[in-house]
């Protein structure tokens, strides 16, 4: 199926768009949670929505109401109420009873979720149909979402985006420097309240599509991945939002396409877990491949540095020996010849070119300068060689200049060897 | 105008149940560099934060430039303790300095060309212009402090409050920042700074305040910065103060 059909097909359209909206709102809020280093808070609060959902279902069941939209609204309302009750409990545990944050979160999570299971099993006994409706919110069921859902969640997502845009600078200031924020006239309590309200809202937006149990993955993964790629807070928000939306789309796409690829049309993949997995893979890719901070990229740079060290050490040997030298490291020699650092004489030995001479002299110079510096700092001259072996590859021209000025451009190193200019 | 930049009368502050400052009373003329010294936990930072309205006071009166805090907020700049900041925050050096313009701009206008130029000029002044696109997490302690100075400079404030600006920085930065303090003083600004290194007090400050929950001594440096006062603030007798504080805390929280 074409990508575009996911936005036009009457069956696929609503779930796809709804999941993308959900991905957007929860990943944006995830950035805030990330900055506050409170990723577990989303997990605890999401589980705390369950008793609210169950209680609303129970109430409606006893009122014998059949209205679908009343049900949706009641469930959302109930979820929000218990989420904020849980928030109050966490606050009380941390502030009044001085319980550590992680314990308070675990306690609240299990207490509320336990209550939810209790209420749900009561419902299962008396109203099995309503019970099934409620289970939808636990693991989500994107496939059965309709245009009405899209409209409703779209409005909530828009509300979240609009509030974030409007309060962007207060939010950035309060997360970086609360003192200056307050001095600049911000009411920290009020703003923190707003952020917690947005967090609650984003959880409620997500519970119908990914479900309460998995929604926290969309709070955590896009933000952690996006952090690798962003230098400014604004980029952080954009990239995380993009990751969230992409995960929402990929979840739907893969849930439909993978059974087709495997020629197993009866295989039915749930959308919610696919979204969570997509988000996690995107995050993993960013952690590994981000141009500045990515793990693999850093490993590659490290490898390049090691190669350079080896070549520079060879150059140093040339410089000191100033004559033919048997060398078997053919690859490195080949690289150095290609860079025109060394050339082959008619007798078949290697020698430094003019350019190579300069580079090699510089390495030796850095080595010896560093030795002088360490001795200047009170180190014994017999102990300085090892550190200099490393620093000769690392010191920048600025540091070299400073060293020269500090040591008054010494002529000889501690071992009385001449320092090349 | 009373002629004083800062006037504080009978100020008391507590964190929850813990008393932090008792009956502080002082006034600071404008155009001087004042340092607050005292042992750890003496309430130095709390005094700054209370004056800035970040921490509420229990009782007492504070007048800044002859007015209440609300009316002069835009004329105050604040440099928090470097260790209290999350330096892994996604921001560049320029981003941080631009935060200094938020108070002036209001929160819903975006910084424009004029603000960026002001930020750049401030960075030039502290010798960090070359670093303006650098991530703040990559800076050394001294560089971080220079950036915070630049942020305070774009405030164009009358009163500068700084919390331990000389803690954990290199000597070159310390000299540069001390020169900047002098420059600000020459411009008639008033500076209130917490400080931990007693050996530099004479060089960097005109007035000194010994604080240990109570105000122990206060006045021009050459008169007040004496061995006797240092002993009163840091020595054996001060130990009783700490004990009294702990006792009050226990009593009032029900232990």
What summary fits the major beta sheet of chain B?
6 strands, mixed
Biggest interface reads:
A-B, 25 and 25 residues
Strand residue content of chain B: 15-25%
Task: Please give the share of residues in helix of chain A.
Answer: over 70%
Number-wise, the strands of chain B total 9
Distance between the termini of chain A: 68 Å
Described by its quaternary structure, the protein is heterodimer
Which class of the largest domain in chain A in CATH terms? Mainly Alpha
**Strand segment count of chain A:** 2
Average pLDDT of chain B: 87
Structurally, the number of domains of chain A stands at 2
Low-confidence stretches of chain A: none
**Widest sheet, order of strands of chain A:** 1-2
CATH homologous superfamily label of chain B = P-loop containing nucleotide triphosphate hydrolases
Q: What Rg of chain A is obtained from the alpha carbons, in whole angstroms?
A: 31 Å
Please identify the structural class of chain A as seen in this structure: mainly alpha
Rg for CA atoms of chain B: 19 Å
Binned strand content of chain A? under 5%
CATH topology name of the largest domain in chain A: ABC transporter involved in vitamin B12 uptake, BtuC
CATH class of chain B: Alpha Beta
């Amino acid at each position: 199926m074409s990508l575009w059909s996911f936005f036009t097909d009457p069956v696929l359209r609503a779930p796809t768009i709804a999941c993308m909206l959900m991905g957007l709102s929860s990943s944006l809020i995830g950035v805030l949670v990330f900055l506050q280093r409170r990723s577990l808070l989303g997990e605890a609060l999401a589980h705390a929505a369950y008793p609210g959902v169950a209680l609303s279902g129970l109430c409606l069941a006893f009122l014998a109401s059949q209205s679908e939209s009343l049900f949706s609204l009641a469930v959302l309302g109930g979820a929000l109420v218990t989420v904020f009750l849980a928030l109050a409990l966490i606050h009380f545990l941390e502030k009044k009873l001085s319980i550590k944050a992680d314990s308070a979160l675990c306690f609240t999570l299990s207490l509320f979720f336990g209550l939810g299971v209790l209420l749900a099993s009561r419902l299962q006994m008396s109203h099995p149909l309503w019970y099934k409706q409620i289970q939808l919110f636990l693991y989500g069921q994107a496939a059965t979402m309709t245009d009405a859902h899209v409209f409703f969640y779209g409005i909530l997502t828009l509300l979240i985006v609009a509030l974030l845009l409007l309060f962007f600078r207060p939010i950035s200031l309060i997360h970086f420097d609360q003192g200056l924020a307050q001095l600049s006239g911000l009411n920290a309590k009020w703003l923190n309240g707003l952020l917690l309200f947005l967090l609650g809202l984003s959880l409620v937006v997500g519970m119908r599509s990914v479900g309460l149990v998995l929604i926290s993955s969309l709070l955590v993964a896009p933000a952690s991945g996006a952090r690798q790629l962003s230098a400014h807070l604004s980029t952080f928000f954009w990239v995380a939002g993009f990751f969230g939306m992409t995960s929402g789309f990929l979840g739907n796409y893969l849930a439909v396409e993978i059974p087709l690829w495997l020629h197993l049309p009866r295989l039915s993949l749930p959308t919610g877990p696919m979204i969570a997995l997509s988000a996690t893979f995107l995050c993993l890719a960013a952690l590994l491949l981000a141009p500045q901070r990515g793990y693999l990229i850093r490993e590659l740079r490290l490898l390049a540095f090691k190669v350079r060290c080896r070549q520079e050490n060879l150059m140093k040997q040339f410089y000191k020996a100033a004559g033919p030298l048997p060398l078997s490291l053919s690859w490195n020699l080949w690289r150095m010849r290609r860079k025109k650092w060394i050339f082959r004489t008619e007798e078949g030995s290697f020698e430094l070119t003019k350019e190579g001479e300069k580079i090699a002299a510089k390495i030796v110079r850095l080595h010896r300068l560093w030795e002088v510096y360490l001795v200047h700092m009170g180190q014994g001259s017999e102990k300085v060689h090892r550190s200099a072996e490393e620093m000769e590859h690392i010191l920048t021209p600025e540091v070299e200049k400073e060293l020269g000025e500090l040591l008054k451009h010494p002529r000889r190193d501690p071992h009385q060897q001449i320092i090349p200019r | 105008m009373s002629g004083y930049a800062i006037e504080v009368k009978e100020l008391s502050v507590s964190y929850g149940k813990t008393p932090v400052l008792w009956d502080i009373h002082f006034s600071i003329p404008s155009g001087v560099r004042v340092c607050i010294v005292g042992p750890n936990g003496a309430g130095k930072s709390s005094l700054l934060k209370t004056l800035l309205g970040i921490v509420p006071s229990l009782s007492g009166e504070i007048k800044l430039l002859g007015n209440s805090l609300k009316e002069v907020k835009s004329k105050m700049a604040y440099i928090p303790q470097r260790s209290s900041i999350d330096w892994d925050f996604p921001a560049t050096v320029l981003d941080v300095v631009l935060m200094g313009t938020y108070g002036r701009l209001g929160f819903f206008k975006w910084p424009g060309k004029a603000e960026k130029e002001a930020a750049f000029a401030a960075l030039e002044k502290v010798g960090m212009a070359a670093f303006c696109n650098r991530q703040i997490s990559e800076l050394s302690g001294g560089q971080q402090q220079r950036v915070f100075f630049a942020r305070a400079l774009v405030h164009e404030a009358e009163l500068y409050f700084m919390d331990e600006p000389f803690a954990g920085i290199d000597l070159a930065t310390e000299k540069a920042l001390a020169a900047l303090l002098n420059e600000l003083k020459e411009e008639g600004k008033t500076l209130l700074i917490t400080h931990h290194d007693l050996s530099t007090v004479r060089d960097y400050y005109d007035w000194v305040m010994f604080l240990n929950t109570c105000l122990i001594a206060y006045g021009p440096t050459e008169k007040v910065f004496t061995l006797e006062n240092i002993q009163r603030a840091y020595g054996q007798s001060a130990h009783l103060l700490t004990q009294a504080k702990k006792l009050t805390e226990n009593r009032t929280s029900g232990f």
